[in-house]
Write a structure and sequence with these properties.
single chain, alpha/beta, Rossmann fold, 2 domains, five-stranded parallel beta sheet, about 15% strand
Amino acid sequence: MVTVVVTQVEYGKAQGSFTDSAQMRFVPAPNQEAALAAAVKEAGARAVIVGPAPYAGELYAALPAGGVLARFGVGHDGIDKGKASAAGILCTNTPGTMVNSVAELTIALLLAVSRRLLPMSAHMAAGLWQPVEGLEVKARKLAVIGAGAIGQRVAAIASAGLGMRVALCDRSLHRKAPYALPGVELVAGYDEAVEAADFVSMHIPGTDENRNFLDRERLGKLSAQTWLINTARGSIVDEAALYDLLAEGSLGGAALDVFAAEPYVPVAAGKDLRTLENVVMVPHVGSYTAAAAKAMAERAIANVRAAIEGRYTDMDLLNPEVLATRV
């Protein structure tokens, strides 16, 4: 029987999926790297399932060569693939498992800010009957930056379901044949996508290349009526620049699910996004649904099982180069 250590948060999200079998037993452990590495060693684990927290050192020494570091989720910027490959560790993620969940939250945030639901709810809680005029999104322009599965799903819902004008920015269009989404305009450039946009929704990965992608210059391309929605990664936004533009009224507002530091901490003194009335913030819940958690757990377990059985081509490998070492 193979022991699989699962970080406590992820274990709690899908405990029903982490049921011991003749092939695997599951052991919950702390998310913090030193404690997690110690748990892996103590249990003699061959695999570990982790969330989005960054892992930089001890964990790669704790797992054996041929072991699996399985991401419970899609984004894998918290995993050092170079260190994992050097140690002969297979890294995986769970692509496609949270597409609908994140897309639905994106649309929920868009509708919430357009109809001013949060301030009116606060008014009602304070005993006030104070209607606030909202905005109908039909025929309004949504720029979707990033054309992966989630970006495409958001674009499709907004176009077909809400009647919005959608520009989908796929920066790789010049490298591949275009594809078709009914009612969606495909563009290759950010500037073209966001021109005259009422809403801009971010769906690019949190890679080093994309760090602070939305800097002051790119944020400055948006109008004083534009709302920014980010359900991708906090690292892609320069939060200090975002604060400045929001505070001075150069940007309409922001609805954020992800942040540079999580739990949220302001990136600079005096630039706390929580103090701004035109900001909506939720604590990274894009994939936090029972259906998505179950799908992510089952996909992570399937990746571990494939490794145990030597079916490497069936895995969602993030570092296929490690196979050259014949783990």
